[in-house]
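Incident log, structure service

09:12 report received: a user says their structure output differs between two submissions of the same chain.
09:20 pulled the input from the user's history:
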Amino acid sequence: MNPLRIAKNWISYRRTLNELGNLSSQTLSDIGVSRYEIRNIASRSFR
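09:34 re-ran on a clean worker, output below:
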């Protein structure tokens, strides 16, 4: 992978992590995501 792609993927990972982390527990429950799954979901954008 080239450095530019790695940087873009890292930004996407951090953005996803922050956006999901800022949601309320009720909203996460409504979309079927637990707080413990946030990093796993965000890491999919880093691959």
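09:41 both user submissions now match this output. Likely a transient worker issue. Closing.
09:42 reviewer note: The chain has one domain: 1-43. Residues 1-43 form one domain.
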